[in-house]
Every structure is written in structure tokens, then in C-alpha cells.
Amino acid sequence: MLKNLFKTAWRSLLRNKTFSLLNILGLSLGITCSLLILLWVQDEQKMDAFHRNKANLYDVYERVFSEGKVEGAYWTPGPLAAELKRKLPEIQYASSFNPDQSATFEVGEKIITMQGASADSDFFKMFSYPILEGTAASALDSRDKIAISRRMADNFFGSPAAAINRTIRYENAVNFRIAAVFEDPGTNSSDRFDYVLNWPFQLDTVTWLKEWIYRSPKTYVQLKPGVSPAAVDGKITHFMDSYLTSREAAGFHIELGLQRFDEMYLHSTFRNGRTYGGRIEYVRLFTVVAIFILLIACINFMNLSTARSVRRAKEVGIRKTIGAARFSLVLQFIGEAILMVFLAAIVSLALTWVILPVFDNITGKQIVLPLSRPSFWGIVTTLILLTGFVAGSYPALFLSSLKPVKVLKGTLKFSPAAFWLRKGLVIFQFSLSILLIIGMMVISRQVTYLQTVNLGFDREDLLYIPVRGDLYKKFTAFKTELSGMPGIQAVVRTDQPPQQTGAHAYDIEWEGKNPATKAVVIHVTVGYGFLKMLNLHLLQGRDFSREYPTDTSAYIINETALKLIGYKDPGPIGRPLSIFGDKCKIIGVVKDFHFKSLHDPIEPLLINLNEAISWGYILVKSQPGRTRDAIASLQKVYREMEPKFPFTYLFADEEYQRLYNSEQMVGRLSDGFAILAIFISCLGLLGLAIFTSEQRTKEIGIRKILGASEGSIFRMLSKDFLQLVGLAFLIASPVAWLLMQNWLREYPYRIDISWWIFIVAGLAALLIALLTVSFQAIKAALINPVQSLRSE
Questions:
Q1: Which of 192, 336, 645, 671 shows its CA 20 to 30 Å from the CA of 47?
Q2: Residue 2 CA from chain centroid, whole number
Q3: How do residues 601-616 score in pLDDT, each as one tens digit?
Q4: Which of 18, 23, 25, 29 is nearest to 677 (CA)?
Q5: 3-class SS of residue 497
Q6: Can you spell out the DSSP letters for 157-208?
Q7: What is the pTM of this model?
Q8: Other C-beta atoms within 10 Å of 410: how many?
Q9: pLDDT of 317-339, one tens digit each?
């Protein structure tokens, strides 16, 4: 029986080659889209799930209460991890973790800059980064030890075995003994690093990390087996209260919370101080998109199959006349659908293999087709059977319900309900397609807005280099040497890049401050010329000047800080202001500018002067069109003054663009999915056009005999389809508006959804639909009426 079903299905497929190719094309594109999104979703869900102790691994986050608002953050005080482990018996291990540290290492004549982190001695006991040489217990148990990756070991020593117990020089200042070599963190790890310094050394080097008032590292804890996370979460809520002085406590209030470590990657956005979303929203979004596109492909199959039903009606009538049961006919047509989906799946796997490198480039992943995994083939098989059943169910039930007497007498007619169902399916397809087109346009405009909006400072021709070694001591000479060199316009010191300024201060004081006011501000330390270089607009007062030696005890604030402080009469200039207990005064007010991502609102900002800080960056403004000359000049002077450190630089504009990698990825994917959805929907429209023209063949012949022109026939057939697309537009527009308004609500700075976006989307859908049906409509209009009216 199965052999007969397969043979019949195969013959039907070969007999109707155009129909079969259209079906396979639509299904293969739908399956390809679903497979790509499935692989991406699985990769997202696997992030950080490889750690053996993942069920007990948690991140500690903060809820900061200030000015009547609650903000969440992963950054915590440096002493927190050790103190939590000491005070709470439920905690087995704890570690601070300070990521994204760039440092230069030296072995012999080889000098390389690597990216790494610093952590406590418990770190490798908690996390399952395989130790190739050494042990997890002793990797970071003393100040003179360091753990490095396989890649770093290969670069410096040739192999992990050759690296163990060797000495490596850090920042041309400190020698470390390599106590462990770990496997390179894979793509399924959200934390990437090539070395890990021990935390005691980090505390001794950056002494402010010892203070409870400042926060920089993340804090990870591992609970003992059987311990209730909820109970520990309750215990640590007010843990910080006893570690803040009365002066500090008057400025703000902090609560702590726990989040599973393997949930951080997908749930890293805060609302009202608690995690609620993040990349998980994109996972959900594209999962729905995959289902919709596959559903559109299934609807195509239904429409195309129904369009061919007139030609298969006699086959059904004959089969029923000779005794075929309805169940066997249903089985046959669903079997044909599954065969079609199987062939489409083969094409889809090939397409996925070809497209995957491009998809990886868009998503920033390294996904490969897991052809060797039985679970993957299980998913593909399930997808084939499910898609075949969904796609083939309506044609199977419809064709098997035909009455043999009516079929064989040639009096087959389709009920209005059948017509409206098929039209409803097309409306549903185009509603989804128009929704995706509108979404694509809104996302594209928002991404463009984020990338091109005026931030309030000039980031053109701006680059910066990290301060290493003794360069901070030589800054004046460095700046003087660069003055007048080719391509150089200005050189300035800063402790933070202008688009990533985020150092918090919680103990701000000013004259007349209400003791109940709880305020948090951002502060940045700069050198002379900072405001001029960034073209910041000074509203009141003056800039820092060498003519005023007391400017090292002064602040320039932004408009938002002035609103917080409230100095009005007299104005703020010359009025007292202090953070960290240092008594200073305000000498200027600058217009608000965006010094962080546009995901965040502008916060109160304090700018102070200090060109002698031993960390941070040197900002360089190149002359317009002479960036290469400026880099060459920088490199020459840098190598003369700091030959022990490699010359590295970053462009401010490129680093700003990286803040919106997720939005750019969503924009590119939405473009592709919208185009794919509209293309597949057009295949469904083509199916309905074929079906309609076959059903109205005699009507068209009679109209032509009575004098109807080809143009009127074309308009008659096209009008019905355009009405369906118009109705789809009316359904999709309000839904798209609601969804995109909700998406844009996450951005403090966003575009307005203009009315013309909906008009453009609707006209595009109408034009594409018209082009799709025009060929079939013209073909039907030109057919000879003699052939249309000929009796069978």
C-alpha cells in the first residue's frame, strides 16, 4: 500500500512540473528560514549552559534607588564577593570578575596586547573552563600567579605544556608566573578572555576597588547543593546597608538580588531595578517570524493544490467509483504533501548550507549545520511530517470530499465558503507580509536614527589610544611633540571614551541640598581643551584654563546636573559642589550631550580637570580628510616615547556603532525575512490566480464573444486580487503600529512612526501583487474563446 501511495504521489509530482516546482520553491524557502532561525535560537539558548554547576551559579546584581527612581546594574563593589562568602554559609564559592581588560604582555622580544579579566581564586572552581595545564584550585591563589588561554600560550610559548610555570611580564611592570592554562572560551561563552589576573593583585593596583562606595566588577556566587536561591536572595537584599557610611547612605540606597548565571545573556535588561528582558525578546520575535513564514509556505501549498483540483477531480471521482474509501484518499494526498515537503527539505538543507556563512556574518555567530547530531535529524523529520500534515490537510479533506457523480458529469462547482477560505488564506499571508514590511521600515529608520543622530558632540575625525606604561607621565611632552605634525588638529586627556562615559558618584553634595535627596551622577576626568575638541556648547561660565590654577578643584556640569542641583538665584557659577568629599566649585554649564548609548537617558554629568591621571585614554582630533597622516604621526611619536608597548587606536565613530550591534542585526534580518515573506506570499497569490482563471475560463470566453476587450478582462481578474491585498493592508496596519510602538518604547530617544511608512508598505504590496497576477491575468485574457467554450 505504501509503495502504491509513493508511486502515485511521484507520478502526480512529475505530471505537474510547474505546480510541483512552485510548491517545492515555496516550501523550501519557508523551511530554510525556519532552520536558520531554529539554529540561531538554539545557539542563543546554549550560551553559558555548558558549566557543570550551572544550576547553582548566580550573578549578584544591584538595585540602585535614587531620585525616586530604581535602576538595575550588574556592577558591584570590589569587596562584595569575599564578604558574601564570609558572611553567608549557603555560599560555597564566590568571585569578583572584572572583564574587558586590555593589557600588554612580554616574553623575550615578543610583545602582544591581549584582552582578559581579573577574578578571585574560586573562579575556576565555579566555572567549567577546561584546565589544560595546572589545576583550578591553584590557578589564582597568590598575587604572582596568572592563568592564560591556549591561544595565548601558543602565541608566546608554542604550546600549553611549554607555558606552565613560565614567567610573563605584564604591562612592562610586573612579572607573573603562569600557574594554569585553560581552553579558549568557546562561542557558547558570554565571557571571553585570554588571561585572568588574580583579584588581590587587582585590588592592590586599583586601590579604589577596595571601597564599598565604588562599583566596577561583577560578582558571581555558587550556592551549596540543596540551598534555596530565594532564601539567599532574601538574605542579601539589604546586605549593603551595613557597609556604607552615614554620609554615603544619605546619598543613595542599594539592594542586591540574584540571577542565574546562564540566564544573564538572554535576560540582561532591567526595568524598575529587576531583570525582565533583553535578547530573549529577539529570540521570541524571530521564533514567531519563523512560524509565520513556514505557515505562509503551507498556505501556498494549500492554494496551489486547490488551484490544480479541477484537473484532479476526475481522478478522485474514478477512484471513489471503483471503491476507494475517503480515508485512503486523505492518506494519499497527505502522503503527496509529505513527499513534496521531503523534497523541499533536501533543497532547504542545501540552501541553509550555502546561506549559513552570510547568516553567521549578520548575526555574529559561528553556527554550523549539526548534520552528525541525531537530535538535529529528529527535528528535521518532525518538521517535515508536521509541515506536510499542515500543508496537505486542507487539499486532502477538500479533494476527498468531492462527489463522484458531479465530478464525472462535469458539474463540479465550488461553494462560496471554499472560495472565501482560500481568499482568507491569501489575506492572512499578505497581512503578515505587510506587517513585516512595515516592521522592516520602522526598524531600519530607528537604526539609522541611532547611528546618525546628533549626539551633542562632534565625533567626526576622532580617535583615541589607551594610556599604557609611563605615557601618562610623558603626556605633556607627547602632546607638544604631536603639535603641528601632519594630520593632527588637537590632543586631549580623558579617563573615559566620550561615548562610553559611565563612572558613577553617589555622594554628591551641594549648598542647600535636602538631606532626603538621593542622587547619583556621572563624572568624567579630562584635560585642557576637552570641550573645544568635542565642540560642546558652553551655556554659562567658562572652560577650564591654565590661567586659573584653581580649576583642578572645579567642575563643569551639564544641564541635567543643573536641574538636579537647582541653583537658580544666583546662578550656579562659583557655587559649591563636591563628590568624594572634595570641596569644589562650579565654573561652567554645558548643553546636554549623549555620553552613553541612546538606550539610556541623559544623566547628570560632572566634568573635572586632571591631566595627570595614570589611566584612561588620549583623544586625538585629526584634520578633516587627513586621518591616515594623523595615525602615522601618532604611531611615530608613540613608538619613540613608549617603545615597549604596541601602538593601538580606536575610532570613536566605529566604537559608537558597536553599541547598536543588536539593532543592526535585527534590522538586517527583518529586511531579509520581509522580502522572503512577500515572495512566498506572491507564490500563494499566483496559485489563487491560476485557480480563479481555470474556474472562470468559460465566463471569460463568453465575455470576449460579447465584445469584452483584453484590458477589461485583465482589470476584472486583477481587481479581485488587489482587493484582497487592500483588505490585508487594512488589517496589518493597526497591528503593525501597535507592535512597533511597543518596540520603540524601549528607547528613550526614538523616531515617530510616520503615516507615509504605511502608505509605502501598502503600495509596495499592491504593486508586487499586481506584477504577480498580471502574467496569469494577461494569459487568461488572451486565450481564444473557441478553446474556452469547447465541450469536453
A1: 671
A2: 47
A3: 888 999 999 988 888 8
A4: 29
A5: coil
A6: HSSHHHHTT-EEEETTTEEEEEEEEEPPP-TT-S---SEEEEHHHHHHHSGG
A7: 0.81
A8: 10
A9: 666 676 666 676 677 777 777 88
